[in-house]
Structures are given as structure tokens and as C-alpha cells.
Amino acid sequence: MVKREIHKLVLIVLSVFLGHSMVAQEPKSLSEIQNEYPFLLAEKGGMSYYGDTIYRDAFFQKLEELNLCGEGTVNISHFGGSHVQAGTLPRKIWKNLNLLYPPTNGAPGFLFPFNIGRTNNPRHYYSDSNADWTKIRAARPSDTARWGMSAITIYTHDTSGYVRMYNRDEDSAYWVFDRVRIFTPIGDTNFVITPDSSMGVISTRIDSAAGVIEWTLAEEKRELLFHWKKDSSKQRVIYLDGVQLLNSRPGIVFNAMGANGNSTRSLIRSMEFDSQVPYLGTDLAIFGIGINDAHKPPEEFDVEEYKENYRKIIRALRKANPNMAILFITNNDSYYGRSPNPNALEVRRAMIDLAEEQGAWVFDLFEYMGGLRSSVIWYRQGLGKKDKIHFTPEGYQIQADAMYQALEKDFFDYLRKQYPLQNKP
After folding, report:
1. What is the mean pLDDT of residues 133-141?
2. Measuring CA to CA, which residue among 1, 3, 5, 2 is closest to residue 422?
3. Which residue in 174, 150, 328, 360 sits closest to 240, CA to CA?
């Protein structure tokens, strides 16, 4: 009862500022974005919820506990391809959400050491190693591996070495952790991974079936350092599928699950996807997978297979959390060869169908951009790259801000229904 009255009091205070963001460093409002870029079609695009609202309300309940009471952890997992691997879009979404009042201290979440696999790495963290690593991607048909949920892995035959991961963002307050999960195959042929003594590990748990090593630390750390070595004649390789850095503080944990070229097929090919995703504890799954599925001639794009792949992915995630909410991001306008790719329209329709079926938000980026050929306009306005597929930091910022503002509005609507304000007679 006391908690309910606190919630109501906070809502009254917040209601004074309706029409304004709840964050200290405000993302741009929808009207500000529209005024700056009048070619955007907010009335056709933007974000809408379809289907059963039970999943939306379950997510908002957790967000309510966190943002009005400072309790609990909200886990968000963003699945995608190069838009996610680059790090700009997921980072901006996370920063918007994590600035909700009161400010939260969510852990770094899932990270992949892309740069030691010789591929582009998000700017806010870095990894180094003294070994020679090779990357293998589920997105590449000729590659074979026992991939985990990230659909990318790196491996080395060097018999000993280290990996170090650390923050290099100016905003490092969130980069603290007291639990570490290493996602790696565990078996007779794999080198043995051990934490550096500086990590202060007080307990270790191993899930051999899923390929997960979990360390609990004596105190919070800001840098991860671990080693491996060969200690038997059978051992010949180490694979690394990623790491997850967690802490005991309330906050939003954002897991960026993206690799260049990823499609829905990439995740289906990942043999340990089903066994590893429970470790994410996903409360909200953001799905931006589709640009690579659809990058082909229209007659070769099988939309029914595409939808069925998504159903399999959603089943695996909802098996771990039956109340998981979903946000689909439709394909942006892109070109196949010299022509606009009409498959973007099929992906858009497929995502709306899936949202009605599964209960989910859809951020209609395709229509919001302006529909077919709009990627040319975004490029000319400095929001898109010349390849007419990727975006500049400003382009990603617009998307993140638009999604945040729509989500915040829905959250306020939820709070008003939960705690209706009584007008005095």
C-alpha cells in the first residue's frame, strides 16, 4: 500500500511535466525532429503496438519498479546485423532509456571483442589480446562452427594468452561489474580459461552444456582480464562467443546482440542459441533483423520462411521469459543494385503480421524515413551513408530518439491507467 501511494505521488509530480522528457539530458522530441527534418513521414511511420498487451504491460511493470522505486533490473536485448555491431544505434537507445529519472546504473551487459577478430568494434569499449584470432560468422554460408547466441565466434590455436576488455567512453559511470560470464565451448579439446588474479574471483560456476563460465567477484571492477592455457595433449583450440558483464545494482542492462551480415537464418544456424539466451533474461527484445534476409531479388525472398524463422527465435526467448515484450524495427529503405529494394515492403508487412500474432511494438522505420527511395534523401541530408543501407551517427540518433519518445508516451499512458488521478470536487 505504501509503495502504491509513493507511485501515485511520483506520478503527480511527473504529470506536471507532461509533454516533456523525464530525462536530464533530453533526447529530441518528435516535433523537434520533424521541424528539423520535414521530409520525415511521422504520420505514416513511427511506433505502434499490435496484439495482446499483456507483454507490453509486463515490461512496463518492471520499468515502473525501476524508475519509480529504484528496484530491480530491466534486461533489453537488441538483435540485428551491422546496425547493431557498429554500436551507435544500440548505444543511443540505451543512453536514452538509462537517463530516465532517477538515473540508473545498469551493467555493461553482453559484449563481443570484435576488434581482436579484425572487424569493426563499437567505440565505447575495446579489447586487446596477445593471440592471433580468426573470426567465423553464421552469416557466411561457407563458415561452420558451433555458434552461440551472438552468431559470431573467434578462435585461436595459440596455446596460451590473454584477453582484456575495458571501457573507453567518456561516460564510464555504468562500466562496473561484479559478475562475469564467458561464453565459450567447454570440452576435452578446448584450452582452459582462468581469471587473472586481479579479478578477485570468489566463486565459479560452469554450464558445460550451454558453454558458459560464470565468475562472481569480491568487489566491483572496471576492467576484465582473463587467460587461457593448454594443460593436456587433447586440447588444441579456444573459441570465444562473447562475454557478459553484470552487477548487483538496479538499472537497465542492454545486450547488443549483433554481427555484420546477420539474418534470421544466422540465429537459426547458431546451435547454442536456445541454451544461451536464458542467460540474457530478456524483458524486451528489439528485433532489427531483416535487411540481410531481404538483400536479394524479390522472387528469391521467401517471406513465409522469414516469418517462421522469427517465430523460432521468439519461442526460444519466451521459453526463458514467457512475458517478454517485443519491438520490431522494420527495414530501412535500401537499394539492391541500382534500384530501391521492394523487399522492404514485404519485411514491413511481415513484421506487422508477427506483431499482431505475438503482441509487439513495430517501429516503422521504412515509412518514417519516407518510403521507397528515401535513403537518397537521408544521404543528401547527412543522415545516411553513401551505400544507402547504413546511417551516420545523426541518422541513428533520430531513430533512437523517435523510439524513445514513443515508448515514453506509452509508459505514461500505462502509469495513468495504473494510478488514475482523482479530481477534487
Report:
1. 95
2. 5
3. 150
Q: What confidence tens digit (pLDDT) does each residue in 160-189 have? A: 999 999 998 766 667 899 999 999 999 999
Q: Is the peptide bond before 90 cis (omega within 30 degrees of 0)?
A: no
Strands 242-246 and 177-183: antiparallel
Cβ neighbours for 99, distance < 8 A, ≥ 6 positions apart: 23, 24, 25
Residue entry with cell 488521478: 421
Rg (CA), the chain: 22
**For residue 20, what pLDDT band results from cuts at 50, 70 and 90?**
very low
CA distance 111 to 183: 10
Q: Cα separation of 159 and 228, whole Å?
A: 8
- Residue 194 DSSP SS3: strand
Question: Does 146 score more than 60 pLDDT?
Answer: yes
Q: How many whole angstroms separate alpha carbon 208 and alpha carbon 214?
A: 11
Specify whether the CB–CB gap between 40 and 371 falls below 8 A.
Answer: no
pLDDT tens digits, one per residue of 384-403: 999 989 999 999 999 999 99
Q: Identify the DSSP state of 114.
A: G
Which residues share a beta bridge with 216? 179, 203
Residue 257 in grid coordinates: 546482440
Q: How far is Cα 242 from Cα 150, in angstroms, rounded to an integer? A: 7
Question: Rounded mean pLDDT of 71-83?
Answer: 94
Fill in the amino acid letter for 280: L
Buried b (16+ CB within 10 A) or exposed e, 142-165: eeebebbbbbbbbbbebeebebbb
Instruction: Say how far apart CA 163 and CA 342 lie, in whole Å.
Output: 43
Q: Are 253 and 75 in contact (CB under 8 A)?
A: yes
φ/ψ region of 394 (left if φ > 0, alpha if ψ in -120 to 50, else beta) reads alpha
What is the tens place of the pLDDT at every residue in 183-208?
999 999 999 999 999 999 999 999 99
313 neighbors 293 (Cβ within 8 angstroms): no
363 pairs with which residues across the strands? 47, 329
Task: For residue 255, give the nearest of 385, 42, 79 by alpha carbon.
Answer: 79
Say yes or no to pLDDT of 425 above 70.
no
What would the grid cell of residue 322 be? Answer: 514467457
Question: CA-CA distances (angstroms) from residue 132 to 108, 227, 247?
Answer: 26, 14, 31
The amino acid at 284: L
Q: Each residue of 267-313: pLDDT tens digit? A: 999 999 999 999 999 999 999 999 999 999 999 999 999 999 999 99
Element at 217 (helix H, strand E):
strand 212-221
